[in-house]
Specification:
The complex is a heterodimer of chains A (114) and B (116). By secondary structure, chain A is mainly β. Helix content of chain A is 0%, strand content 50%. Classes of the chains: A mainly beta (114), B mainly beta (116).
Chain lengths: 114, 116
């Protein structure tokens, strides 16, 4: 079945450092790929999405490119801030083998220190 | 506009009791999903509604779990004879359901269930 694998955390960075959180997937069909973020004490929020191969999603300085050849959707940010500290979830939806449910990676905790 | 709302925000119950969790999706969203977030299992899909029907119930962990949706809007997740392993945050999400499951899902704040 479809699945998502994220790099394990926690990831600890200094402010203004470069961030990469790796995400790879296994899916049939043509799923959309998502990054959701969960700030401390808050609910899940969509950070960015991409709906087809080679699409780049971007928001709040974060970017991720849908790479079909490497089945990856790595999250990047050039300069992190303390306010980016949160748990980040990679997810896929709409592959041929599912009815729209999101399949999530295990989540990666990011802590940014001043 | 209003987002997805869930109630109660917190629920503490005793083992063996039944609980009902409510979800109000974004107006006009035909698809509604329930997920569970727990420390050991991460984020797990439970059930998907398209309108009032549930074409995918594959994530319900046992027959103690059931859900319904009425009027294509509000949904209730019921857990009968609760067990301690049911303790988790129950999340509801909704979407327009126009793109074969590839639409963005918008999440509610969740209901934190604690079974003593």
């Amino acid at each position: 079945g479809d699945s998502v694998t994220q790099m394990e955390g926690p990831v600890t960075l200094s402010e203004e450092a470069f961030l990469t959180i790796n995400c790879t997937y296994t899916a049939t069909g043509y799923p959309s790929l998502f990054w959701y973020v969960q700030y401390p004490g808050e609910g899940l929020q969509l950070l960015l999405k991409a709906t087809k191969a080679d699409d780049k999603g971007s928001n709040k300085g974060f970017e991720a490119t849908y790479r079909k050849e490497t089945t990856s959707f790595h999250l990047e940010k050039g300069s992190v801030q303390v306010s980016d500290s949160a748990v980040y979830f990679c997810a896929l939806g709409g592959g041929r083998s599912n009815t729209g449910k999101l399949i999530f990676g295990q989540g990666t905790t990011l802590q940014v220190k001043p | 506009g209003a987002g997805v709302s869930q109630s109660p925000s917190n629920k503490v119950t005793e083992k063996g009791k039944d609980v009902e969790l409510r979800c109000d999706p974004i107006s006009g969203h035909t698809a509604l999903y329930w997920y569970r977030q727990s420390l050991g299992q991460g984020l797990e899909f439970l059930i998907y509604f398209q309108g009032n029907s549930a074409p995918d119930k594959s994530g319900l962990p046992s027959d103690r779990f059931s859900a319904e949706r009425t009027g294509g809007s509000v949904s209730t997740l019921t857990i009968q004879r609760t067990q301690q392993e049911d303790s988790a945050v129950y999340l509801c999400a909704s979407s327009l359901d126009l793109a074969g499951g590839r639409d963005t899902q918008y999440f509610g704040p969740g209901t934190r269930l604690t079974v003593l």
